[in-house]
Write a structure and sequence with these properties.
Layout lengths: L1 H23 L9 E9 L4 E2 L4 E6 L2 E3 L2 E5 L10 E3 L5 E7 L2 E8 L12 H5 L3 H10 L1 E5 L4 E8 L3 E9 L9 E7 L5 E3 L4 H7 L8 E2 L5 E7 L2 E8 L3 E6 L7 E6 L6 E3 L12 E3 L4 E2 L4 E3 L4 E10 L8 E8 L5 E7 L7 E8 L1 E20 L2 E11 L3 E7 L3 E8 L10
Parallel strand pairs: 1-10, 11-21, 11-22, 23-30
Antiparallel strand pairs: 1-2, 1-7, 3-6, 3-8, 4-5, 8-9, 11-15, 12-13, 12-14, 12-16, 16-19, 16-20, 17-18, 23-26, 24-25, 24-27, 27-28, 27-29
Amino acid sequence: MRYRLACGLLYAVSSVSLARAQTATAAPTAEATGSASGHVYCADINAPARFATVTLQPAPEKTEASPGKRIAPAAQSAPPATRTGLDGSFHFSVVRPGTYFLVADYPGYVSPIAKLSADELKSKEPSDIEKVEKLLVKVTVAANKDSGSEIELERGAAIAGTVRYDDGSPASEIQIAVLRLGDDGKASTVSVNLNAQSRSHFDLRNPGLETNDLGHYRVSGLPAGKYIVMTTLPTTTNSFQGILGGPPATVFHTDEAGALSVYSGNVFREKDAKPIELIAGTERDGSDITIPLLGLHSISGSVTALADGHAINWGSVSLLRADDKSVVRYFYIPGDPNEGQFNFRFVPDGEYILRVKDPADAVSELKQAEGIVYTGYTQVHHYASVDMPISVHTDLSNVNISVPDQPATTQKQ
């Protein structure tokens, strides 16, 4: 009885307080919204694109203060996405008034994203903004109205082949990236859909494509143009916890020190790759690649302080080509005591540079952020970065890179 009485008094007090607040300040009015709908069709067969993915992307705003573009604050959250129905129709409800781009993804068909590089999509140059606007379907949503749009997709070209080791065995789970050659001869990763585009933000040359158990690969939905195929040995290992009980979790570990890449024409360098020309809507099979097992070497060693020879436990070691300084591999020294060790595997013959960057002595300490306790590292003494030329024609071990102290005036705090 006391509990009911207390609840009743609390409700009465709350009601009075709410009434006073409402008389003092008018209740905010809900913002009027609109909707966007339409259909997605396959142009080559004049049929609906069933279960295609459609995303409503907020259009960048042009401002007089800047010739470029900026994203409205309201557009920072993830844009809505839906799948089309059996008739190819889609519908977005409760859409804030404004200008949007409709982006449709359908297997085998050219996504407008595939015609744009990541740099063009994020560019502030007026010419790039104009290119984006020409390729994407624009829709303007008004309050209390439905805005309709039709999207027509063109069948893309496809490239397929088999990746094998030089002993004839299939190379399975090999990462595949298709690189498009621009008019300037430079290669850029092709994002055949939004999923690949989002992955490319984290790893520009790994859009999530792999060979199957027979070493086969096939990439479809490509615009016409010249391409090269890049294959890379597996670098990621997944550890699954909780299989036999306990909370489930997946831990990803990436080891870039063994990331050997082989390009079209069975070469190790992108500039030497053999281009593959694709015609719109056609299939190009037989684009095979062979990965050598012979002629690959390892380079291992340590980074030490020049003054006293102790192991440096923080920094990175990169393997660069001597002629153009392009990065072949990189290795992070993780901060563990007495570390300073590096190991590059599957390195072809050639002239290279070992580059030690931002070396330091670091001490570990327990840190906490948002209730999570973790081991962090504090750098207590810094050393100068060093380049060391190295010629690789056999396995190299016990390679020592000595780093001098940074001048006192440049020691980081």
